[in-house]
Amino acid sequence: MSRITLSQFLIQQQREERICAELRFLVEVVARAVKAIGNAVGKGGLTNSLGEAGGENVQGEVQKKLDVIANEILLEANEWGGHLAAMASEEMDLPHQIPHRYPKGEFLLLFDPLDGSSNIDVNISVGTIFSVLRCPDRAGDGSDVDESAFLQPGNQQVVAGYAVYGAATQLVLTVGSGVQAFTLDRETGSFVMTAESMRVPEDTREYAINASNARWWEAPVRRYVDELNAGKNGPRGKDFNMRWVGSMVADVHRILTRGGIFMYPMDTKDPTKPGKLRLMYEANPMAMIVEQAGGAATTGYQRILDVQPEKLHQRVPVILGSKNEVERVTGYHSS
Ligand code: FDP
């Protein structure tokens, strides 16, 4: 069976006017960076890149060496091509400006270079998540792009994607017309399409949540999870199974592949943090992908893609996956 490569897919999308040449180039460059990150992750303990880097990121989280390496790979790959106005990353407090020696483009690239990085040292899947926005009102005078340019709701994203570095390296992508998955053929070095139109089943018997936070959950989430755990004899009348990798990319990838609901809900553990995950480069791209695959994504209170960001690194509660389950738990928040 002959399968198309990522490059062929992107050319098709450009011909059908779903993306412009700049966006096609942008995705190609991100894919190239993803291969380099996958290589670094795949070397495991063979190089000196496991363990902590000795610093903290803007979230006050310990940075792993591979977090820093992945961030640098993405910055370097994307700086010179002329397709971006600026970049933002989980690992950097402020937006990264395109050096003056390079031309600037009209897009903004946001990323979490290595999501789930607390799992790297134990050889569990990690990933890269990215989101692309248009840069509003660019002055064209080479001036810096400040944080406010990035503060657009997720419904403005033009491309969203993630890579998962697991048994295989896969790139999952939406340019706004469905979701495609590409698997890296390590022999040829090409990403090859392995799923053309991913669909999240509307119903599921699988859920994913860090249950150690149960004492801090709000009542609607507690009610929902209690009902799932009550199984056949409870109000749902069926048994549910739980799966929690603890690496968002891997958990979302499972849900995209076979259905399920993923929750990192609002809790009262730390009143300064409404949820754990970051809106701009974790929740938004994942929400766009899940919606494009027929699933749903909310905070419990509203659609994630409609949240108006106030800060680049803001956190947001996340409930996403199989539509009927997400709608049910979201409904519990308003009843
Ligand atoms: P990590 O801290 O390892 O980078 O986004 C952060 C994230 O991982 C997600 O990938 C994951 O779903 C979540 O945090 C797990 O957090 P907890 O261990 O606090 O449940």
SSE series: HHEEHEEEEEEEEEHEHEEHEEEH
pLDDT averaged residue by residue: 93
Shape: globular
Q: What's the number of extended β-strand segments?
A: 17
Query: Which residue ranges are poorly predicted, with pLDDT under 50 across at least 5 consecutive positions?
Result: none
Radius of gyration from the CA trace? 19 Å
Describe the largest sheet.
8 strands, mixed
Structural class: alpha+beta
> Helical element count?
7
Share of β-strand residues: 15-25%
Topology, element by element:
Layout: H1 6-15, H2 21-42, E1 52-56, E2 62-64, H3 65-79, E3 84-89, E4 96-97, E5 107-115, E6 126-134, E7 159-165, E8 169-174, E9 180-185, E10 190-195, E11 206-209, H4 219-230, E12 241-242, H5 248-258, E13 261-264, E14 277-278, H6 279-292, E15 296-298, E16 315-316, E17 318-321, H7 323-334
Parallel strand pairs: 3-5, 11-12, 11-13
Antiparallel strand pairs: 1-2, 3-4, 5-6, 6-7, 7-8, 8-9, 9-10, 13-17, 14-16, 15-17
The chain binds 2,6-di-O-phosphono-beta-D-fructofuranose (FDP).
Residues 115-119, 210, 246-248, 276-277, 282 line the site of 2,6-di-O-phosphono-beta-D-fructofuranose.
Give an overview in words.
This protein is α+β, with helices and mostly antiparallel strands and 335 residues long. Helices cover 29% and strands 24% of the residues. It has helices at residues 6-15, 21-42, 65-79, 219-230, 248-258, 279-292, 323-334; strands at 52-56, 62-64, 84-89, 96-97, 107-115, 126-134, 159-165, 169-174, 180-185, 190-195, 206-209, 241-242, 261-264, 277-278, 296-298, 315-316, 318-321. The strands form 4 sheets. It has an 8-stranded mixed sheet, sandwiched between helices. A 5-stranded mixed sheet has the order 12-11-13-17-15, sandwiched between helices. Strands 1-2 form a two-stranded antiparallel ribbon. Helix 2 (21-42) packs antiparallel against helix 3 and helix 4 (219-230) packs across helix 7 (323-334). The longest helix has 22 residues, at 21-42. The radius of gyration is 19 Å and the shape is globular. The termini are far apart.
